Amino acid sequence: MAEQRLAMRTQFPASAESLKPRLKKAPEFPILEKQNWLIHLHYIRKDYEACKDVIKEQLQETQGLCEYAIYVQALIFRLEGNIQESLELFQTCAVLSPQSADNLKQVARSLFLLGKHKAATEVYNEAAKLNQKDWEICHNLGVCYIYLKQLDKAQDQLHNALHLNRHDLTYIMLGKIHLLEGDLDKAIEIYKKAVEFSPENTELLTTLGLLYLQLGIYQKAFEHLGNALTYDPTNYKAILAAGSMMQTHGDFDVALTKYRIVACAVPESPPLWNNIGMCFFGKKKYVAAISCLKRANYLAPFDWKILYNLGLVHLTLQQYASAFHFLSAAISFQPKVGELYMLLAATALSFFVAVALTNLDDTENARRAYAEAVRLDKCNPLVNLNYAVLLYNQGEERGALAQYQEMEKKVNLLKDSSSLEFDPEMVEMAQKLGAALQVGEALVWTKPVKDPKSKQRTTSTSKAASFQQPLGSNQALGQAMSSAAAYRKLPSGVGGTSQLTKPPSLPLEPEPTVEAQPTEASAQIREK
Amino acid sequence: MGSEMDPLLLAWSYFRRRKFQLCADLCTQMLEKSPYDQEPDPELPVSQAAWILKARALTEMVYIDEIDVDQEGIAEMILDENAIAQVPRPGTSLKLPGTNQTGGPSPAVRPITQAGRPITGFLRPSTQSGRPGTMEQAIRTPRTAYTARPITSSSGRFVRLGTASMLTSPDGPFINLSRLNLTKYAQKPKLAKALFEYIFHHENDVKTALDLAALSTEHSQYKDWWWKVQIGKCYYRLGMYREAEKQFKSALKQQEMVDTFLYLAKVYISLDQPVTALNLFKQGLDKFPGEVALLCGIARIYEEMNNISSATEYYKEVLKQDNTHVEAIACIGSNHFYSDQPEVALRFYRRLLQMGVYNCQLFNNLGLCCFYAQQYDMTLTSFERALSLAENEEEIADVWYNLGHVAVGIGDTNLAHQCFRLALVNNNNHAEAYNNLAVLEMRKGHVEQARALLQTASSLAPHMYEPHFNFATVSDKMGDLQRSYIAAQKSEAAFPDHVDTQHLIKQLKQHFAML
């Protein structure tokens, strides 16, 4: 800003000269500009009241012809938030000296602030004709195009701006465009350059860290977030992200201490309470976890991730009805975006719903939920296994067999692709089921005498099925954590401001109209 | 046999059984027969007794406990110049609840009333109003009480009572005040007391009552504390708080009574001296340990000063003494509800139900608690009961509004939408419902509708920060920074500690400062 001000000063004489020929009375000329220095001094000292007084005096003397006074008055109006007035004044300035690109720029900027992006682009284009080499014009044009949803043009303009003069803001806007287009890699490229250019900008560092987090590159993410925290130890986004990373690694205590800092600064942040709740969940303090998650849900009732976590905790506590309610709410709020982890989450959701329903003995709906989960699922054998167990317990051995084979396929795929260790409990379960299925089929043809034994088997599997749930939810625990981590990833990835609109849904405060009638109150006292 | 009964005894019996009309009628008959006692100083002044009894009966019919009922009219609130300090220090005034946020809940968690206080668990005449800063705010009826506010208290409630008394005696008033020789009556202390109460409560002629009280206290050589209290009451009613304070204080010196403490505290509250009132209550507690009315008074003051934790402590103390105290139970219950313990709140509300409180509000709260404590089976039945018990449309609107929350809680946005709509149908001024509808519209992507709804909400309830903030964010997203800034500033005024608002304002200021 200071630079800019200086620019104004130097530009000034020029415009004064341009005024000169038009004025008929030569002696008046020096009066016109004589207090400019004073106005400037007051302005840069932020002494706006005094500044306004001087401006008023000056404008009275000159009958409103002093351009600089009007200009500064307009700036002050803008700082006070009266953009309409400031626009009018800037327009007067532009009339007074039509050759000045600065005035046009200010007019355009006012239009931009008023949300008239189209008009703003026109004025900027005009200004660009007067001054080709101004990065600001290019940058602002780019921003206007973003609002007008013309991303290609916006990119061009922003790149132009970067050629003329490198600036943090331009980088950020460019990064935003890439994020809007969903191109994470390019966004990261841009942010990397930006961080190279200004390594101490915490906003850039945090955003880059969050992007890395989203891509799962934890080392780099942590590095950048850590850097951001060294420059600004109270940056709440960075703390939250760092905390969620610690959570993924199981450092719940450290994460909680981090969150404590945030809780002082932002006590009403839903993601914060969500993460704290999941920390407690990780430490197996379920009541605290539920209470934190519920607060998060209270603050952001539309957030499906919180509902998801709540469902998960209740599932672990074997409160299946509550779990079902939370999970079904989560499903209905879940955005229908086909991103990978969304899909994973959707699978997990329907899977959990199925588990909850199984335990509520609503097999019909449980089967539907499993079918949905299987449809969405691509790589998790656990879903098929549980579905198979359910079908087997229902006596549909053919369906169970189909699911079992599906599961084996997935297991083989997984074995090929990675050396992933399977949960021994799951493996054991799968073996039991396999045995049961084969024995059962063999039985049909050979000896019906063995029936009691197979029945015993089925009971054992059904027992194991109920055993399965802890296992399922254990597995889910990892998932929940990642969702807690993903939580922060998502939002700031898409853009800080768009995230912030979610909390406003927190107005949904139930207001219990707790009231006994006043008449009753007086009756109450009188009895005493 | 009944007809043989001595009429005075019968009238007395009626009076004891609170059949005041019958008692008064009987006394009238007796007085018609013999208006005056024959001898100047009889052994048994029957007529005099009948006269006193009639005065007392008439008084009892319209008696209102002065301690409790204190509804401020607009005139009292706007033209209130009794406050000692115009710019009070934080924590010493009831006027600026925002300044003493010690232990108060954040508005993001517990909704606030128009006066900027957290919503209370128990509606009483003074809690809802607070002291508004502007005339406009004063005229607007507060959300928790939809009854029209009397323009001034003396022309509101008291006048109504006066006219009511006129109706009961069609052939003119029982006692013609203007023809009363007050000095004569002041000589007879027993008669004077009844007469005073009659004038004060039934005729509502405070000035005459004050005259009588002054004469009487003179007659008793300033040794009767009762008269001092009555003079204090008259002064209080006339708005002469300092004089009232003197009278009450001197009465307390003679005889410490719970009533007197309560009256004096009331004076201090009118003078906006909550801390002095608190000290007084505590003094009173030293004399009368465990007195419920005093404890409850302390709790109320703490609650009005936004010190919810202390208020809850005292309410608990009240419950220790009197475990059927509705106000204390309701307040503790709502406090638990807003501090994430719906299960505990549920227990308190159930207690109220056991005690026989049976109204719309209670069932509504039960329903909400059930939902948040995951007792899903009871939730909807409670709300159904609440709907059937609702007495007016505003209550119905509130129940639907809460049902909307339940719908959001189970993820059914369509149902939520309908619930909020129904709330609006029943009460067109339900700002919260407008706001929530706007949020739902936003989720559907209908930005223009959302903006319109938000504007309605913010004009209806300027004390809520949510519509302002939502409007600011929506405008910001659309690029209309000017309006966004204005709305954000309003939001900041309503809830200064809201971090998201602060972020937004900072961002906007950066935009404005950038050249």
Can you tell me the CATH topology of the domain at 434-514 in chain B?
A: Serine Threonine Protein Phosphatase 5, Tetratricopeptide repeat
Oligomer: heterodimer
Return the string of H and E elements of chain A. HHHHHHHHHHHHHHHHHHHHHHHHHHHH
CATH class of the domain at 434-514 in chain B: Mainly Alpha
Low-confidence stretches of chain B: 127-133, 141-168
Element-level helix/strand string of chain B: HHHHHHHHHHHHHHHHHHHHHHHHHH
Derived from helix and strand composition plus strand pairing, the structural class of chain A reads: mainly alpha
Can you give the helix content of chain A as a percent range? over 70%
Quantity of strands of chain B, as a count: 0
Share of residues in strands of chain A: under 5%
Number of distinct helices of chain A: 28
- CATH second-level architecture of the domain at 434-514 in chain B: Alpha Horseshoe
Shape of chain A: elongated
Overall 3D shape of chain B: elongated
Spans of chain A of 5+ residues with little confidence (pLDDT < 50)? Answer: 1-28, 439-528
Total DSSP E strands of chain A:
0
Our measurement of the CA-to-CA distance between the termini of chain B, rounded to an integer number of angstroms, reads 101 Å
Family (chain A): Belongs to the BBS4 family.
Organism (chain A): Delphinapterus leucas
Region (Disordered) (chain A): 448-471, 490-528
Protein name (chain A): BBSome complex member BBS4
Outline the structure in words.
The complex is a heterodimer of chains A (528) and B (515). Chain A has 528 residues and is an all-alpha fold. In chain A, helix 19 (304-316) packs antiparallel against helix 20 and helix 24 packs antiparallel against helix 25 (424-445). Chain A has a domain at 379-441. Chain A is built from 28 helices and no strands. By secondary structure, chain B is mainly alpha-helical. Chain B is elongated. Chain B has 26 helices and no strands. Helices cover 65% and strands 0% of the residues of chain B. Among the domains of chain B are: 1-63, no CATH class; 434-514, Tetratricopeptide repeat domain (Serine Threonine Protein Phosphatase 5, Tetratricopeptide repeat, Alpha Horseshoe). Classes of the chains: A mainly alpha (528), B mainly alpha (515). Chains A and B meet through helix 5, helix 7, helix 18, helix 20 and helix 27 of A and helix 16, helix 18, helix 20, helix 22 and helix 24 of B.
